[in-house]
What we know:
Elements: H1 2-11, E1 15-19, H2 28-31, H3 45-49, E2 56-57, H4 67-83, E3 86-90, H5 111-116, E4 121-124, H6 143-153, H7 157-161, H8 170-177, H9 187-190, H10 193-196, H11 208-223
Parallel strand pairs: 1-2, 1-3, 3-4
Amino acid sequence: MELIHTEVPRHFQYVTLSHRWGAGEPSLHDVKGRKIYNMPLMGGIGKLQGFCAVACDDTCCIDKHSSAEVQETIGSMFAWYRQSALTIVYLSDVPDTGSIGSSEWFRRGWTLQELLAPQTVLFYTRNWSRYKNFASLNHKMNVTVLAELVEATGIEPQFLYDFSPGMDNARWRLQWASSRLTTRPEDIAYSLFGIFNVHLPVLYGESAEHALGRLLTEIISQSGDISVLDWVGEPSPRVVIGSKRRAPVI
């Protein structure tokens, strides 16, 4: 796995897929040793068939049965998206005439770094049509789409097209994530590791509060900014980040 991470970017360009995970997404074990196009159209196979010729799909590129690989993957995910030549965002819940801001994709925890990390992004709607048929080669640089992204996320334009991972503006970064949901509660913290450029153990089974507490401790340790503990913003329906009503365990 380490060899793949180091050698692939040196010799090849690759495209990544960002999407809202749904029921029946194929795993690495589901597709290993099988021809994708011969598999029945069940669950997420159709989505995979429409995409696998041009990209890396995170549902089936990771052996989720290996805790070591999961740890390494979470630590490397931001870099994967940053180094990709293109990230295609597939919005399965947006019709051709719809607006990207209505998509559930903008309310999921993991998709925040999938929006911020890549430098080139194209949005595709339910029928695999390029969003509003814009001819732009990068929707992050399209004035109309960029305005919609700002409205949907509350993130300033300069962070959308020129984002750097790290500790700067830590409170803003927490606010961007505060209304997003993850299937596993502790993932709300793990999904921010790449955004803050921190490397912490992934301990599935811990509480979301404990995971967030470890993250905030690392942020304060590296930045010296204790104001993140005073931040009060709109809470996520699943997990409250930085709320004085449910302070994280540190």
